[in-house]
Amino acid sequence: MSARHRLAHRRSHETIAIEHNNQRFKIGIGRELVSIEAAQLGPVAEVFISAQKVNSTIDALVCDAAILMSMSLQYGCPAEDIARSMKRTPSGEASSVLGVAARLICETAEEKANG
Question: Mapped to the 3 state alphabet, what secondary structure does the chain carry?
């Protein structure tokens, strides 16, 4: 197993509010600053997800799942592999808010690559 990439203390963080299956969530995407002077961001390194109702069962589950997703990224698992592994509806949409978060991570990485 590869070593975990330890994150720097200063990181960029973007929060996105979404609604999935008639429930509201906030997804936080954290990336390290590669260069503070040039404001250059690195790849997504952490994910936070919270449900609208704090401390509910769904909030605890999505929070824990986001921690596992973050650790997978920090151990070198490509975001695309995570997104591809998530359950889908028959129409191909993400079945869970975790799948939505994984798609957002990939879109964020793609936007960064395309400038």
Answer: CCCCCCCCCCEEEEEEEEEECCEEEEEEEEEEEEECCCCEEEEEEEEEEEECCCCCHHHHHHHHHHHHHHHHHHCCCCHHHHHHHCCECCCCCECCHHHHHHHHHHHHHHHHHHC
Q: How confident is the model at residue 49 (pLDDT cuts 50, 70, 90)?
A: very high
Q: Which two tokens stand for residue 87?
A: 């359950």
Cα–Cα nearest to 65, from 84, 46, 42:
46
Task: Please report the pLDDT score of residue 28 as a whole number.
Answer: 95
